Amino acid sequence: MPSLKVAAAIPWWPRSSPDRQRHHETVRAHLRELLPDAVHLDVDSGHDPFSRAGSRNLGVRLAQEAECDVVILADADTLAEPEPLHAAIHGAYEDGLLHLPYVSFRGLSENGTRLFLGGNPPEACETELAHDWATGGYWVIRPDAWWRAGGMDERFVAFGYEDTCYRIAADALLGPTVKHPGAIWHLYHEKTMGLGSPNHIANGELAARYVAAEGNADLVRAIVGEFARV
């Protein structure tokens, strides 16, 4: 296995709330510790409202410009475990698929997050949500593969559904996403998801089209192609 050049990109809106800013600093320090030789990027595509999809696409473009072999797209409030993250990096480079460095999602409670930030290991801290069906938080992929799956659809505005739909596109256009044994740990912050807003409703309507096309490469390619023409 050759020495790989890796980018670790965090979609990041600098005017986020104080608790999110603290979490961003924690996650960035965590990634620098795990990947000291990586290209570390904070990315904001400049959309208003802030676009997770657009910022992730920008992160991949910057990784390409830096001639990186693999890009990690990490949420600013989520931590990954070392072994599955490194396994995902090497796996993504070898097979050109989307890799997720976890099976389990663990959302720390407010008190659990306080204990973690105080120096306790995350597995010893209280969680408020735990499940094995997450598809966001961390993506690991080669830049060329990211675009073969169409990039992340920037018609998804603000928060909601963009990660699930990119997973649907990647499964159909690249092959089944690979998940590595391990967990990601989400740090508690005040929720600002805009549930029921016009943007969130529109996101849901677009997501329903992806879900209806799931597993059908031609149909997924057609939906992705609409975004490419926007």
Description:
The N and C termini lie far apart (39 Å). The mean pLDDT is 93. The longest helix has 17 residues, at 18-34. The strands form three sheets. A four-stranded mixed β-sheet has the order 2-1-3-8. The protein has a four-stranded mixed β-sheet with strand order 4-10-6-7. The chain has helices spanning 18-34, 52-65, 82-95, 110-117, 143-148, 162-173, 198-213, 217-229, and strands at residues 6-11, 39-43, 70-74, 78-80, 99-100, 104-108, 127-131, 138-141, 178-179, 183-186. By secondary structure, the chain is α/β, with parallel strands linked by helices. It is built from eight helices and ten strands.
Notable characteristics:
230 residues; alpha/beta; four-stranded mixed beta sheet; 8 helices
The percent of residues in helical segments reads 40-55%
Strand content: 15-25%
Biggest beta sheet summary: 4 strands, mixed
Shape: globular
Q: Strand order, biggest sheet?
A: 2-1-3-8
Instruction: Point out poorly predicted stretches.
Output: none
The helix/strand series, from N terminus to C terminus, equals EHEHEEHEEHEEHHEEHH
By secondary-structure content and strand pairing, the structural class works out as alpha/beta
What is the count of DSSP helices, taking H or I runs of 4+ residues? 8
User: What gyration radius follows from the Cα positions, in whole Å?
Assistant: 17 Å
Mean pLDDT metric: 93
Number of strands: 10
Distance from N terminus to C terminus (CA atoms, Å) equals: 39 Å
